[in-house]
């Protein structure tokens, strides 16, 4: 049995590595041709294009691993079947499950590899790639925001500003509403501007409305400046939502989601992307289940059919995942199911196909 496993791995590994290189090259070509008009219009130097492509390689490896794994396993088993080697193996009493044990082991290793490789290598380089791309094309990413409204952590203080200047860390046209534990309005501040002083916001040219329970009405006061420690929401809370989960490590992504939730801003889409970080790492296991069940069905035109089936299956999987993520972003399903439903569906399909596979 050990000899057969070694034979299988010797056939599989070169194809797998070669396929990864091929699809990395394809992803690079797609990225270059998608931006070729912008590069030409901005007279971007070849050195800058090469640097962008270099930093894009780790992300291309992440994109290429699932389809390369699917193709290489399907091609390896199909090649065995075409040469009647698979029939001999089954005829000797070796089951399909025992035959694919090395693939399952590789799948587990690749799942861990994909998660940690993305966190420590792919995400930093992809972020650097995007920064170089924006700088090269003079496309600075703005964080200033218009018509922003957020809630404090305890939901008792609500901020509304007509404009947030991220460079100066200032607010313009500010309205602050403060409520008690029962939700009753107790303060309202109308301020011309607000400035961050590293610990809290300082509001200037203010009109303060405070509730007077004795007379049962609001008291109006004009104040030149209001500075209180409780108005301490960080400036980044007011920033435009331009941060991307796929450019953050999972710890930073989780903190960002908590910040969005704390500020009362939409976070379902970001939470779905956060869960997707974990579900995507398990893609090799799905790929192995599916590819091992269909690999023994190919006896002619193994190369073309393996490539065709691999692309079709990956496309269907990503479309299913995209659909579930879209539903989660719009709130039709929980974020968890948006990230995991396609994975669970294909695990079920893979197990069913594996049980029906010819052995």
TL;DR?
The chain contains eleven helices and six strands.
Can you give a write-up of this model?
With 359 residues, the chain is an alpha+beta fold. The chain folds into two domains: 2-138 and 268-356, no CATH class; 145-237, no CATH class. It contains eleven helices and six strands. It has helices at 2-34, 36-41, 46-82, 85-91, 96-99, 101-136, 250-262, 268-281, 283-295, 302-329, 335-356; strands spanning 145-151, 157-165, 170-179, 185-196, 201-212, 217-227. A six-stranded antiparallel β-sheet has the order 1-2-3-4-5-6, with no helix packed on it. The longest helix has 37 residues, at 46-82. The protein starts with a helix and ends with a helix.
Q: Count the strands?
A: 6
H-E order: HHHHHHEEEEEEHHHHH
Helix-strand makeup class = alpha+beta
In percent, how helical is the residue content? 55-70%
Number of domains: 2
The strand line-up of the biggest sheet is 1-2-3-4-5-6
Strand content: 15-25%
Instruction: Supply the number of helical segments.
Output: 11
3D shape: elongated
Low-confidence stretches: none
Set out the fold topology.
Blueprint: H1 2-34, H2 36-41, H3 46-82, H4 85-91, H5 96-99, H6 101-136, E1 145-151, E2 157-165, E3 170-179, E4 185-196, E5 201-212, E6 217-227, H7 250-262, H8 268-281, H9 283-295, H10 302-329, H11 335-356
Antiparallel strand pairs: 1-2, 2-3, 3-4, 4-5, 5-6
Quick tags:
six-stranded antiparallel sheet; alpha+beta; 359 residues; 6 strands
């Amino acid at each position: 049995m050990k000899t057969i496993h070694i034979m299988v791995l010797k056939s599989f590994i070169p194809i797998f590595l070669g396929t990864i290189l091929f699809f990395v090259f394809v992803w690079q070509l797609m990225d270059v041709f998608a931006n070729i008009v912008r590069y030409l219009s901005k007279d971007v130097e070849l050195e800058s294009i090469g640097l962008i492509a270099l930093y894009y390689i780790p992300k291309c490896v992440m994109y290429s691993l699932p389809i390369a794994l699917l193709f290489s396993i399907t091609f390896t088993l199909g090649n065995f079947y075409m040469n009647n080697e698979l029939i001999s193996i089954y005829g000797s009493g070796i089951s399909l499950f025992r035959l694919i044990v090395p693939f399952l082991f590789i799948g587990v290793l690749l799942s861990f590899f994909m998660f940690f490789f993305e966190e420590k290598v792919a995400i930093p380089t992809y972020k650097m790639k995007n920064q170089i791309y924006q700088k090269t094309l003079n496309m600075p990413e703005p964080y200033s925001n218009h018509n922003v409204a957020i809630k404090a952590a305890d939901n008792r203080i609500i901020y509304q500003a007509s404009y947030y200047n991220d460079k100066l860390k200032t607010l313009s046209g500010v309205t602050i509403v403060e409520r008690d534990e029962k939700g009753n309005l107790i303060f309202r501040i109308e301020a011309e501007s607000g400035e961050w002083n590293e610990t809290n916001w300082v509001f200037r040219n203010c009109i303060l409305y405070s509730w007077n329970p004795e007379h049962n009405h609001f008291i109006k006061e004009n104040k030149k400046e209001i500075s209180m420690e409780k108005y301490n929401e960080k400036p980044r809370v007011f920033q435009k939502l331009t941060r991307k989960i796929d450019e953050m490590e999972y710890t930073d992504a989780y903190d960002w989601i908590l910040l969005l939730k704390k500020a009362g801003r939409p976070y379902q889409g970001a939470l779905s992307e956060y869960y997707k970080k974990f579900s995507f790492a398990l893609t090799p296991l799905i790929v192995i289940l599916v590819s091992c069940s269909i690999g023994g069905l190919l006896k002619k035109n193994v190369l073309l059919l393996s490539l065709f089936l691999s692309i079709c299956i990956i496309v269907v999987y990503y479309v299913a995942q995209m659909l579930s993520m879209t539903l989660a972003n719009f709130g039709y399903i929980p974020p968890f199911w948006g990230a995991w439903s396609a994975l669970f569906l294909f695990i079920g399909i893979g197990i069913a196909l594996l049980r029906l596979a010819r052995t």
